[in-house]
Amino acid sequence: xxxxxxxxxxxxxxxxxxxxxxxxxxxxxxxxxxxxxxxxxxxxxx
Length: 46
Hints:
Layout: H1 3-25, H2 29-44
């Protein structure tokens, strides 16, 4: 994986992590599960 792709993936993970925290804090389990699935897909590429 090229450095730029890796950096982009790391930034996407950080963004999704913040969104997941927000969804969980506000009790939106449906949105939290959707974000978890996106994180799974993204992290499986490593």
